[in-house]
Design goal:
14 strands, binds nicotinamide-adenine-dinucleotide, Isopropylmalate Dehydrogenase, 2 domains, two-stranded antiparallel sheet, binds 3-isopropylmalic acid, 10-stranded mixed beta sheet, binds manganese (II) ion, 12 helices, alpha/beta
């Protein structure tokens, strides 16, 4: 299979972990006889420094023409005091909007033998396996331009959703629930927000179309608590943009680190973008210690969702699990035993596993 992949490293550890994903994809291409070509473009702070904008047109055009996009992370202290339109994060929001990536799928599964890496009790975390379906192109992130009024004494951010925007993400979540255990939790703040009231109405309307799915509504504050006291009660969670952002970082503690969480940002039928849930991690950028797993697992999601290469995706996921099982881990995973390795060594171990597994399969069947 021939595929053109656009890489958007971005800033901070984004630049480091994207190399890991590329190494892993090169190993997959070699082992399975695929041809993946890579084209790198700037986004975020890197693009501001080079072109004076966080999202150059050339980047948008390249993404639109690609078969899939991998994004590292954007942002960093260098640009924190820039005016809003010149912040790196604007580049990320801009590419999500330009590609109409309304559905952000964030799977969260405790890795076998890593339960003790979570600060939560092992018996609480054991068996947790959930999917956050986050609406990604609407809500308060994209309201009428935020502004300061009254000589800076008043600030305004608006939260708007259209019926269509809610319907399409809710459909996506119902379908995801059908493919899993058939349980959907819709998270909102319907006791206060009008947008949440409409969200809840739409989920209720849609129920009839998906009679095999059991639906529950939970208010976001309670959901934040239940997520870490009783995570196994959740399967698919669907929620609006900002609630989904916050809950997914919270849910990362189930896996022991934000450095483990991958995501897929999908449109109706256009190009998909795959990005770790974490950011550019300025506190560890440049040290070579970032956990590449979230980025590598995002590349696996790309193979599965954009290219339907399920065996290849599963091999990558098995490789990450196997390297962790062998006791190797990056510093973000607080495991007293085992051996701490840096980004490059972790990547090499994952690549080696991929090569060894595929080679041994060939010896048996070729
Ligand atoms: P962050 O996710 O960058 O970091 C939070 C903490 O998690 C830090 O202590 C960091 O070292 C750690 N961490 C994150 N990923 C890790 C990994 N792969 N390996 C090891 N440790 C990891 O969040 P932040 O510090 O709040 O934000 C930093 C910058 O990143 C900000 O500019 C923010 O806007 C941006 N950001 C970007 C994205 C994105 O591009 N998708 C996502 C979140 C934050
Ligand atoms: C994420 C990030 C982004 C978001 C920021 C950097 C704009 O936190 O991808 O989770 O809030 O969507
Ligand atoms: Mn986030």
């Amino acid at each position: 299979m021939k595929k053109r992949i656009v890489l958007l490293p971005g800033d901070g550890i984004g630049k480091e972990v994207i190399n890991s994903a590329q190494d892993v994809l090169n190993a997959i291409a070699e082992e399975f006889n695929h041809s993946f070509t890579f084209e790198t473009h700037e986004i975020g702070g890197a693009a501001i420094d080079l072109y004076g904008t966080p999202l150059p047109e050339t980047t948008v055009d390249a993404c639109k023409q690609a078969d899939a996009v991998l994004l590292g992370a954007v942002g960093g202290p260098k640009w924190d005091n820039n005016p809003s339109h010149l912040r790196p994060e604007r580049g990320l929001l801009g590419i999500r909007k330009a590609l109409d990536l309304f559905a952000n799928l964030r799977p969260i599964k405790g890795f076998k033998n890593l339960l003790h890496a979570s600060p939560l009790k092992e018996e609480v975390v054991a068996g947790s396996d959930l999917l956050i379906v986050r609406e990604l192109t609407g809500g308060i992130y994209f309201g009428t331009p935020s502004e300061r009024r009254d000589n800076g004494q008043t600030v305004v951010d608006t939260l708007a959703y259209t019926r269509k925007e809610i319907e399409r993400i809710v459909d996506k979540a119902f379908q995801a629930a059908q493919g899993r255990s058939g349980h959907l939790t819709s998270v909102d703040k319907a006791n206060v927000l009008e947008s949440s009231k409409m969200w809840r109405e739409i989920v209720e309307e849609k129920k009839a179309q998906y009679p095999d799915v059991v639906v529950e509504h939970v208010l976001v504050d309670a959901a934040a608590m239940k997520l870490i006291t009783n995570p196994t009660k959740f399967d698919v969670i669907v929620t609006e943009n900002m609630f989904g952002d916050i809950l997914s970082d919270e849910a990362s503690v189930l896996t022991g680190s934000l450095g483990m969480l991958a995501s897929a940002s999908l449109s109706e039928d256009g190009v998909g973008l795959y990005e770790p849930v974490h950011g550019s991690a300025p506190d560890i950028a440049g040290k070579g210690i970032a956990n590449p797993s979230a980025m590598i697992l995002s590349a696996a999601l790309m193979l599965r969702y954009s290219f339907q290469l399920n065996d290849e995706a599963t091999l990558i996921e098995d490789a990450v699990q196997s390297v962790l099982d062998s006791g190797f881990h990056t510093a973000d995973l607080h495991i007293p035993e085992g051996r701490q390795v840096g980004t490059e060594e972790m990547t090499r171990l994952i690549v080696d596993y991929i090569k060894s597994q595929n080679a041994s399969k060939c010896i048996m069947s070729c």
